[in-house]
């Protein structure tokens, strides 16, 4: 965190976007990925940066690491030597052929190479990826590519084999908690312990979501507590999810369905969010192995059907109904 950030502490919540205000500017500031940072730093120190492929879920530091690399290599000149493209918006072959090639061809003042960062590269079509592979070969002398994606399996093998692959895992609860505490202290926010626990739970390893939720909750009142966090993030409390499942397993379908209806209509959760929280919490419910396996099977089936376009509420009620019916056997 920069000194300027600290001096700005106490500004009214919402005046700035905190995920940008507190985005780490150097690799040393990146939280929770010590091994990855160590390897990246060794490339920079040896001036031997290969093409890189960053794979992992959202909000864990992929873009931050790419920008930090450019800052450390080029210093104040990083903006003129770093091209950032979002492949989900510009996913056709023309983007690869035109914008990337034009940047790769252009002159660069006193540096061995320039860096092209392609975010969400798994959104590129196969033709565009093939064109990208050829571009990586053609301009390998003066250009380094950093590709970012959620699923490395969607990147064609010829590109993967040309890159050093870094797999970013969800951030640990400790890393998220430390950063949230630090930001709350700088901004002068009263953050309760249960509010902090709720932020960490709702984030589920996503630092960006944790910081956004903290900023949003800070605008609703003087104290950021558990109630404010769950309300602003439209997240169910773990105990609500647990009670819903336990009621179904005990055969009380009506009570279980009522809890589900509250989550969908009053809390405002989407069906996919309920599925995600169920999946996260299966092993925290204290279920027997048989019950846990049965629940996982039902969750997988409901998730697939919802993904394919089925009605969310119908599928979730069917999930609870199947658990209730199994309890009678």
Radius of gyration from the alpha-carbon trace, in angstroms: 23 Å
**Helix count?**
16
Give the full name of the CATH homologous superfamily of the largest domain: P-loop containing nucleotide triphosphate hydrolases
Largest sheet: 5 strands, parallel
* CATH class (first level) name of the largest domain: Alpha Beta
The CATH architecture term of the largest domain is 3-Layer(aba) Sandwich
What's the number of domains?
3
Strand content: 5-15%
CATH topology of the largest domain: Rossmann fold
The N- to C-terminal Cα distance equals 58 Å
Q: Structural class of the secondary structure composition?
A: alpha/beta
- Overall geometry: globular
Helicity, in percent?
Answer: 55-70%
User: Helix and strand succession?
Assistant: HHHEHEHEHEHEHEHHEHHHHHH
Mean pLDDT: 86
Spatial arrangement of strands, main beta sheet: 2-3-4-1-5
Describe this structure in a few short sentences.
Keywords: ATP-binding, DNA replication, Nucleotide-binding. By secondary structure, the protein is an alpha/beta fold. The chain is built from 16 helices and seven strands.
């Amino acid at each position: 965190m920069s000194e300027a950030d600290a001096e700005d502490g106490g500004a009214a919540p919402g005046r700035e976007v905190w995920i940008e205000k507190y985005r780490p500017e150097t690799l040393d500031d990146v939280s929770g990925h010590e091994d990855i940072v160590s390897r990246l730093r060794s490339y920079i120190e040896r001036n031997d940066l290969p093409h890189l492929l960053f794979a992992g879920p959202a909000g864990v530091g992929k873009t931050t690491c790419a920008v930090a690399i450019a800052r450390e290599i080029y210093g104040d000149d990083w903006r003129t030597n770093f091209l950032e493209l979002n492949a989900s918006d510009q996913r056709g072959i023309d983007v690869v052929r035109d914008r990337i090639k034009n940047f790769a061809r252009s002159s660069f003042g006193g540096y061995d190479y320039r860096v092209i960062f392609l975010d969400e590269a798994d959104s590129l079509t196969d033709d565009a990826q093939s064109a990208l592979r050829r571009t990586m070969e053609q301009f390998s002398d003066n250009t380094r590519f950093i590709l970012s994606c959620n699923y490395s399996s969607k990147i064609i093998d010829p590109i993967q084999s040309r890159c050093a692959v870094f797999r970013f895992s969800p951030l640990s609860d400790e890393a998220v908690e430390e950063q949230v505490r630090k930001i709350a202290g700088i901004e002068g926010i009263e953050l309760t312990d249960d509010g902090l626990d709720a932020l960490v739970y709702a984030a589920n390893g996503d630092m960006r979501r944790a910081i956004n939720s903290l900023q949003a909750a800070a605008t609703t009142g003087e104290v950021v507590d558990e109630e404010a966090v769950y309300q602003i993030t439209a997240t169910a409390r773990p105990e609500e999810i647990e009670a819903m499942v336990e009621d179904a397993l005990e055969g009380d379908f009506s009570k279980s369905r009522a809890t589900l209806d509250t989550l969908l209509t009053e809390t405002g959760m989407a069906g996919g969010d309920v599925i995600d929280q169920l999946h996260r919490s299966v092993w925290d419910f204290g279920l027997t192995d048989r019950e846990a396996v049965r629940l996982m099977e039902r969750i997988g089936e409901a998730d697939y059907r919802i993904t394919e376009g089925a009605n969310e509420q119908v599928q979730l009620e069917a999930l609870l109904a199947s658990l209730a019916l199994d309890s009678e056997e």
